[in-house]
Each structure stands twice: as structure tokens, then as C-alpha cells.
Specification:
Elements (H helix, E strand, L loop, with lengths): L3 H17 L6 E5 L4 H13 L4 E8 L3 E2 L1 H14 L4 E8 L1 H7 L4 H7 L7 H20 L3 E3 L14 H13 L3 E3 L9 H11 L9 E2 L10 H17 L7
Parallel strand pairs: 1-2, 1-5, 2-4, 5-6
Antiparallel strand pairs: 3-7
Helix pairs in contact: 1-2, 1-8, 2-8, 6-7, 6-9
Length: 242
């Protein structure tokens, strides 16, 4: 069987990591749900840097289901990459999610006149802020994720959101990278890539209970909401659960 997609993915991860961090020390954090995209990045990274250390970081917002699937995918990645030090860590941020996003839904939606609920943006900001703290505490400079081009219409992947998101990492002195963004353009392509990488495709991927529940917001709403939520996150950072 041809492994053209897997070979391409491994090369992209290697080349883009080295381009972003020329003195890469072999350690990275990957925001990991156990779904298709983050599993593809994990498997490709382990082949690109077999003697490295990869932290699979799950940020639990209190709304995730099928976490057993995440644990299964972690064990799979570990089994596929015995040379790589694959470490799984779960950080619970349910209290911050409650204070920053959930408790203010009514005010954000009605009083501020937003056209759609934007709480998923709050969740993504919390997840990435938490990942930045985690990496900084461990002295790890590189944080990866499985963002995919096919999801670019989501509010949490628009330019209005990604600019402030990247600034979070820059403020922590970290490098943030979505190494397979353009190749993860189609589910069929992702599935074929995973098959070539030897990664089992879960029938029931981990999912947030609010996943795919909201429509796309206006750019100015994303900009305003993102700025407000970042202020809230900084204000309640002490509530981040270890």
C-alpha cells in the first residue's frame, strides 16, 4: 500500500517544526483530544522526531464526552512510537470555563447583542492559555495543535481569533504551530493518512456536548468577544485546576 500521505505528513511536521524552532530540543506539547486531526499530528510528529518527548495535553472543560476514546488513542500512539517519550496529561479547567464562559452566556448573547453564542471561543482561549502555562512551567518552547483547513469557517479559526491566540503564546515566549493545517483539508484525506500512519480511526471520537451547535459569528463580534474573554481569563487565572 502506498504511504504517500503519511510520508508527506511526516516531512511537513519535521520541516515546519525545524523552520519554526531551528534549535528544537526534541520536546513539544500537543493539544490532544484523541480525534482524527490531533492523532494525525501526534503520529506524524513521533515519526518525524522518534527520539523526542511529546506531551499529549488534554484540556477538559467539563463538557467533554467519550474520554475513554482519548485514553485509547493515547495508548495507541504510545504503542506506535516506542522510541518517543509520549506523556499524557489532562488539565481540568471546568471552574474557569464556568466563570469565564458559561456564567456570562446570557449577558454576552442578549445584552451585548451578539448574533450567535460564542462560548466555544471562550473554551478555545482557555484551552490555549492553559497549554501555554503548562509548556512554560516545563520549559517547553513548542506547542502544537491539530487545526485543519477544512474547519477555517469556525469562529475559533478565523483571522480575528487566531491573531490574539498567537499573541498568547508569544507573550509566554513560546512558539505555536499547526503543522498539518493545509493537508488536513478533507476527512477522506485525513482517514487515509491515519491508515497509512497505522493509527486506528475511532468510531466515536471525543466530543464536546456543544460541538457544531452554533452558527458563524460576524468578524467584529469575534474580535470584541475575544478581547473581553482574554481579560476574564487573566482575571481568574488562579482558578485554573492543576
Amino acid at each position: 500500500m502506498s504511504k504517500a500521505l503519511a510520508t508527506q505528513a511526516v516531512k511537513l511536521v519535521h520541516d515546519r517544526v525545524k523552520a519554526s524552532v531551528p534549535d528544537f530540543d526534541g520536546r513539544a506539547v500537543l493539544l490532544f483530544s484523541g480525534g482524527r486531526d490531533s492523532s494525525a499530528v501526534a503520529a506524524a510528529f513521533c515519526q518525524a522526531f522518534p527520539d523526542s518527548q511529546l506531551h499529549l495535553l488534554l484540556i477538559d472543560n467539563g463538557l467533554l464526552s467519550r474520554l475513554d476514546s482519548t485514553n485509547r488513542q493515547v495508548r495507541l500512539i504510545q504503542g506506535l512510537a516506542p522510541q518517543t517519550d509520549v506523556i499524557f496529561e489532562m488539565k481540568r479547567v471546568s471552574m474557569m470555563m464556568r466563570e469565564v464562559g458559561m456564567q456570562k452566556i446570557e449577558g454576552d448573547f442578549i445584552k451585548r447583542g451578539y448574533s450567535t453564542l460564542l462560548v466555544c471561543l471562550a473554551c478555545k482561549l482557555i484551552m490555549n492559555y492553559s497549554a501555554a502555562r503548562y509548556a512554560k512551567e516545563l520549559g517547553i518552547r513548542l506547542v502544537l495543535d491539530g487545526y485543519a483547513e477544512r474547519q477555517k469557517e469556525y469562529p475559533e479559526q478565523t483571522d480575528e481569533f487566531m491573531g490574539p491566540l498567537k499573541k498568547i503564546y508569544a507573550d509566554f515566549g513560546l512558539i505555536y504551530l499547526s503543522p498539518l493545517y493545509d493537508i488536513l483539508a478533507d476527512k477522506a484525506v485525513v482517514n487515509q493518512m491515519l491508515s497509512e500512519l497505522g493509527v486506528y480511526i475511532p468510531k466515536q471520537e471525543p466530543v464536546c456536548m456543544w460541538s457544531d451547535s452554533f452558527s458563524t459569528a460576524k468578524p467584529e463580534e469575534i474580535t470584541r468577544y475575544t478581547a473581553e474573554v482574554l481579560e476574564r481569563i487573566v482575571a481568574c487565572t488562579t482558578e485554573l485546576q492543576p
